[in-house]
Write a sequence for this structure.
């Protein structure tokens, strides 16, 4: 049960002391600050203890972040992106970190039950109140992020509650407020889509489930309120999905339910349907009514004691996981919250910076410094919306109300900013602080484009329109389209048509203009908290490159606009560009997405220059001819023995991404490779040099973006081959796995280590059994460098035929220059490269492990503490190598295609 007030009221005291309710829901109306929340929770628990409760109260809170935070405290409680905002980062690791940090903060204040995560799949985006509270419209993606959130909450020590079963993501609103929103999908349809995240969360150990109060109407299923239906709670949730945790009903005070059934009867129905906790949010009258209904149900034996004992056991099990009297009566409060600084503010900034999404920027309007002179005026147009419940604007409003002062709609003029509306006041100020020209800020309403707006549009050099759920607030959609039309019809003094720059920013649902190609520059922030808008301003002014991507299927259906900008691409000149390339590599390593390791780490300009007679290499740069700075680099290699043309690397200065530099480099590279005589296939990723073995993977949304980017350039990224580099550390204490030596004896091979060109002929004949690009180049380089490289051979005892080989090298070798990981491990390292096992060998894995085992022994004898495997196939050999002490350093997807079928020939 919940209550009104920021201190213990007589009503909630009576409910705890006399009626022994065991669970409390706190909302934004109960909470003023972290310190007050801690005191309130402590007082509630003390009352329960004094009243003889055998276990502490479960105290629940909605702290979803984004626009739904019950607890706000500018000093101690951090703001993080909404669920959809975190899905836009593409990082489940970041989602886990944010969930854990959020849980740590509210746990410090005495909360022990998180009313989340939200596991709804957004299948009806047009008329949907949940919006960015969901992770998106793809059930697998929602499931993955929901479980990441759940694990973060659990690892911090909170109990978790999935919501809103069986799904609020496809509700139809068919009538008045007294008519319950309805799920019209069949159970079969729900099972394939909406139920996936719930099912997976149950398997992963979800503690509790909230069952919604929505209706269900489809063939064979007519339910007025899901949480009152035995068919939904007992049959579907318990029996079909095997959930044995705590079920919590939706609030029985909802108008449709109390009007149609009554709270007393609804309470009995909810318990008999299988709910373990019945939720009543506010009204003391309704709470008393529920208790009377409950008692009457017991007296009339409509509710059995066995039914109650089952629920009691579940609730006690949940409480045992998340609380104890020691914990409940000693909430750490500010002491712990102060220790969580500054890690949590840093995490908040990182999360928001990673979530901001530039969906389209057709005319390259971003950053604003590209299109505006210092003295130009910028117009900001924002809708009139209510402040988010947990925000500084909301807190200021409530303080003003308590002081009795009225809230003006418009605020004061200043030299830099004109009138605007409270929620976006700080956005206008932040934009103004960044520039010398004025920012004109005014709001718009359902009255549409007024003469005042037209005057400001004509006067400004660029316009930013903010929308917030335009799909549900249609006036915002109409206003934006009208302003877009005005901007398209602007003319210069000479009578030439000159489109006025317009940037549309959605600060809630990304669906507002995601598919509307007529809005040329479209940015999404996923919420309009102060922290989100600070990150937005940084994006608008180019302080960092936004990395967010639209989540779910909306991203897959997004038609990417072809770039209109073509950069001058020049051939790489070693004397002129080596220093610039070293600086570019450094920028890429330092500017890589926070928390992710960059594959370029340890590389230098020399790492890309093979100087091998069997390889034709051509490298390209986009550079500033005035400053000699490189903005982008692309390396290509043509391996003559196999007829393979390779793009070995392509990267762009992090501060200049999304400007078509990569497109221009790629087009030049393809044109050059197509001209090579004997070209048979193209490949993304190179064995030599061993820097990018293919498209980097393992980076969540980054992998998706890279695959999409190359797919749009003509590569079939669906046909890829997994490769990786691996590392084994602490060789000083390394011992081979038990039994490996015995299995090598049964492999039927003799092993030896040879150096130098005298052994070249049989080795090079052997590796011809494998047609992978770059193999011959690796082996010839090793054979030509006997002081620092060797070849380990596995031979058949009967006739000495070579069955397998692997290259061994150290940090003094020429090969090491082409494997940056060797330098990046930070210790004395040795390398093993390019295993080739004869196709006739039956025991492939055993022979491979034997070659690597002998390689490790040699590297260990040379005093090295680290061994790097620079190129391994992801074909199921990982388990054997993991047993030997190796872990994956970098994952890649090698992509190949037939040069004869290449269709995306770029213009020359």
């Amino acid at each position: 049960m919940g209550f009104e007030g920021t201190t213990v009221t007589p009503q909630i005291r009576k409910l705890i002391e006399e009626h022994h309710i065991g669970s409390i829901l706190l909302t934004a109306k109960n909470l003023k600050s972290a310190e007050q929340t801690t005191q309130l929770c402590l007082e509630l628990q003390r009352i329960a203890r004094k009243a003889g409760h055998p276990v502490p109260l479960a105290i629940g809170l909605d702290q979803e972040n984004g626009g739904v935070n019950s607890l706000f405290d500018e000093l101690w409680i951090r703001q993080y992106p909404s669920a959809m905002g975190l899905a836009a980062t593409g990082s489940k690791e970041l989602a886990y970190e944010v969930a854990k940090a959020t849980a740590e903060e509210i746990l410090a204040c005495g909360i022990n039950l998180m009313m989340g995560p939200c596991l709804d799949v957004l299948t009806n985006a047009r008329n949907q109140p949940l919006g960015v509270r969901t992770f998106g419209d793809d059930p697998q993606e929602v499931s993955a992020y929901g479980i990441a959130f759940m694990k973060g909450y659990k690892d911090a020590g909170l109990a978790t509650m999935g919501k809103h079963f069986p799904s609020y993501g496809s509700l139809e609103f068919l009538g008045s407020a007294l008519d319950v929103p309805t799920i019209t999908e069949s159970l079969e349809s729900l099972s394939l889509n909406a139920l996936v995240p719930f099912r997976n969360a149950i398997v992963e150990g979800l503690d509790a489930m909230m069952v919604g109060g929505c209706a269900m109407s489809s063939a064979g299923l007519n339910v007025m309120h899901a949480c009152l239906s035995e068919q939904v709670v007992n049959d579907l949730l318990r029996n079909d999905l095997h959930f044995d945790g705590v079920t919590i009903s939706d609030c029985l005070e909802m108008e449709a339910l109390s009007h149609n059934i009554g709270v007393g009867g609804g309470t009995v129905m909810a318990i008999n349907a299988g709910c373990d906790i019945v939720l009543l949010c506010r009204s003391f009258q309704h709470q008393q009514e529920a208790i009377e209904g409950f008692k009457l149900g017991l007296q009339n034996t409509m509710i059995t004691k066995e039914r109650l004992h089952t629920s009691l056991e579940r609730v006690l099990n949940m409480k045992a996981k998340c609380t104890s009297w020691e914990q409940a009566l000693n909430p750490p409060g500010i002491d712990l919250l102060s220790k969580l600084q500054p890690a949590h503010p840093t995490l908040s900034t990182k999360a928001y910076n990673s979530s901001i999404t530039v969906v389209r920027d057709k005319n390259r309007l971003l950053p604003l410094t590209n299109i505006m002179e210092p003295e130009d005026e910028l117009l900001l147009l924002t809708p009139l919306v209510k402040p988010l419940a947990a925000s500084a604007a909301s807190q200021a409003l409530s303080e003003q109300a308590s002081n009795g002062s009225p809230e003006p709609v418009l605020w004061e003029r200043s030299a830099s900013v004109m009138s605007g509306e409270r929620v976006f006041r700080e956005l206008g100020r932040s934009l103004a602080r960044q520039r010398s020209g004025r920012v004109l800020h005014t709001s718009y309403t359902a009255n549409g484009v007024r003469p005042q707006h037209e005057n400001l549009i004509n006067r400004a050099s660029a316009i930013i329109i903010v929308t917030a759920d335009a799909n549900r607030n249609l006036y915002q959609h109409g206003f934006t389209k009208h302003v877009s039309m005005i901007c398209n019809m602007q003319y210069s003094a000479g009578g030439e048509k000159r489109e006025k720059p317009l940037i549309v920013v959605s600060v809630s649902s990304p669906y507002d203009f995601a598919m509307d190609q007529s809005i040329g520059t479209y940015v999404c922030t996923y919420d309009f908290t102060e922290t989100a808008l600070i990150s937005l301003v940084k994006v608008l002014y180019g302080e960092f490159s936004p990395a967010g991507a639209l989540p779910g299927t909306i991203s897959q259906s997004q038609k990417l606009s072809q770039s209109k900008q073509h950069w001058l691409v020049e051939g790489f000149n070693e004397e002129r560009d080596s220093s610039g390339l070293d600086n570019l590599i450094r920028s890429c390593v330092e500017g890589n997405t926070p928390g992710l390791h960059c594959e370029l780490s340890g590389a230098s300009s020399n790492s890309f220059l093979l100087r091998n007679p069997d390889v034709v290499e051509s490298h390209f740069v986009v550079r500033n001819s005035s400053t000699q700075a490189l903005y982008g680099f692309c390396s290509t290699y043509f391996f003559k023995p196999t007829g393979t043309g390779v793009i070995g690397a392509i990267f762009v200065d992090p501060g200049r991404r999304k400007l078509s530099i990569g497109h221009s480099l790629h087009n030049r590279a393809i044109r050059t490779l197509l001209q090579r005589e004997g070209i048979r296939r193209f490949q993304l990723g190179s064995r030599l040099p061993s820097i990018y073995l293919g498209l980097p993977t393992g980076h969540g949304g980054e992998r998706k973006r890279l695959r999409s980017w190359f797919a749009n350039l003509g590569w079939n990224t669906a046909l890829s081959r997994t490769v990786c580099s691996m590392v084994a550390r602490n060789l000083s204490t390394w011992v081979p796995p038990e039994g490996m030596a015995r299995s090598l004896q049964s492999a039927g091979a003799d092993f030896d280590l040879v150096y130098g060109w005298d052994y070249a002929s049989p080795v090079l004949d052997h590796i011809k059994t494998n047609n992978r690009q770059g193999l011959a180049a690796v082996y010839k380089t090793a054979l030509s460098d006997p002081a620092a490289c060797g070849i380990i051979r596995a031979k058949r005892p009967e006739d000495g035929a070579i069955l397998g080989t692997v290259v061994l090298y150290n940090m003094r070798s020429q090969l090491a220059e082409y494997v940056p990981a060797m330098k990046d491990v930070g210790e004395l390292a040795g390398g093993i490269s390019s295993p080739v096992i004869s196709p006739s060998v039956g025991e492939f894995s055993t022979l491979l492990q034997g070659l690597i085992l002998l390689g490790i022994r040699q590297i260990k004898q040379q005093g090295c503490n680290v061994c790097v495997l620079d190129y391994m196939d992801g074909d199921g050999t990982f388990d054997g190598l993991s047993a030997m002490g190796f872990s994956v350093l970098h994952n890649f997807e090698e992509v190949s295609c037939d040069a004869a079928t290449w269709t995306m020939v770029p213009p020359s």
The CA atoms of residues 788 and 813 lie 5 Å apart. The longest strand covers residues 887-898. The chain has a mean pLDDT of 87. Residues 570-718 form a domain with the Aminopeptidase fold (CATH 3.40.630.30).
